[in-house]
Amino acid sequence: MRSAWQIWRDRRGRISPLRIGTLALLLLPVALAVYTFATDGFGARPLNDVIHRTGYWALIFVLVSLAVTPLRRVLRYGSMIDVRRMVGVGAFVYAFAHICLYVADQSYDFAKVVSEIVLRLYLTIGFIALLGLAVLAATSTDAMVKRLGALRWRRLHQAVYVIALLALIHYFQQTKADLSVPIFAAGVLLWLMLYRVIAARAERSELSTLALLGLSIVVALIIFAGEAFGIALYYRVSPMRILSTVFDFDVVRPGWLVLGAGLAVVIADLAASWWRGGGAQRGRAPAQA
Ligand code: HEM
Predict the structure, then answer these.
(1) What DSSP line would sit under the chain, residue for residue?
(2) pLDDT (tens digit, 9 = 90+) per residue, 153-180?
(3) How far is the CA of 116 from the centre of ligand 1 (A)?
(4) Looking at ligand 1, which residue's alpha carbon is closest to its atom 25?
(5) 72: which of 57, 80, 89, 186 fits an S-S bond (Cβ 3.0–4.6 Å)?
(6) Ligand 1 centre and the CA of 53: distance in Å?
(7) Which atom of ligand 1 lies nearest, measured to the CA of 181?
(8) What is the pTM of this model?
(9) Residue-wise pLDDT tens digits, 176-195
């Protein structure tokens, strides 16, 4: 029997390279922050810098936790499901650090923190996302799955879709200048959600390579169009004028990044299929929401 704290061991108590790799991924933002601090420092407002870092990584890990299901199917690597919980709890830890740093930035004036959260919509939305993550982290243990029953537990944990959306809205609302990264994150979330919608209707909940390609192209087109209409509305110009600059590669548009990420998944699918001896069905992970 392994202790609950030995998160580098799998359920059978064996050392798990997958868990160790995931732990390293979860600690990567800390290593990056320490490196930046040691080399360049955190700039004029160090606390603000770390607030941004923790918020950014909390959102990234929420998206990574949502990516586990598609990736385990695409890579035919069923054991990946073992680390989804770890990534989700990691997202909560970063989000919790994010609010703690925010409280520190407000000089621990809790009355001000509460009034800011109530009065500023983007903070209210962030707070609801944080509460959601806290509930999911608190109910992530095996004991809670047993207590709630598998079906209720799964329904509760589907709240992660709404939490991801709220965290993304919070990200958009607080971004003042370049929206490329939030738009790219929106594309990733859209891809992950549409994947689930299509997989729910597909045979054995799996998408063919062609369907993955189609999904990636459609999501990239939606992102190109969404970005163009957003800019057009803001600057009161024609969206066609914005769309006509899509092939100007002096600035890489988020739509291209979304397409690139989607194509990487398609290539991974082809490679995994080839690796498994060409049998597209052989070795695929069983369906799971
Ligand atoms: C009560 C809860 C929360 C509070 C008070 C809060 C507060 C903040 C503040 C003050 C900023 C910086 C805004 C600025 O400098 O103008 C920020 C940025 C951000 N927050 Fe939150 N936040 C909360 C919850 C969350 C959660 C739950 C997530 C994600 C799961 C999140 C993700 C982000 C992201 C992605 C950014 C932008 C980071 C960047 O610029 O790269 N926040 N938040």
Answers:
(1) ---TT-TTB-TTS-B-HHHHHHHHHHHHHHHHHHHHHHHT---S-HHHHHHHHHHHHHHHHHHHHHHHHHHHHHTT-GGGGGGHHHHHHHHHHHHHHHHHHHHHHTTT-HHHHHHHHHH-HHHHHHHHHHHHHHHHHHT-SHHHHHHH-HHHHHHHHTHHHHHHHHHHHHHHHH--S--HHHHHHHHHHHHHHHHHHHHHHSGGG---HHHHHHHHHHHHHHHHHHHHHHHHHHHT--HHHHHTTTT-TTS--HHHHHHHHHHHHHHHHHHHHHHTTT-SSTTPPPP--
(2) 999 999 999 999 999 999 999 998 889 9
(3) 13
(4) 126
(5) 80
(6) 9
(7) 41
(8) 0.92
(9) 888 999 999 999 999 999 99
Q: Residues with beta carbon inside 6 Å of ligand 1?
A: 48, 51-52, 55-56, 58-59, 62, 95, 98-99, 102, 117, 123, 126-127, 129-130, 133, 167, 170-171, 174
Distance CA 199, CA 202 (A): 5
What separation in Å is there between the alpha carbon of 97 and the centre of ligand 1? Answer: 11
pLDDT of residue 278: 57
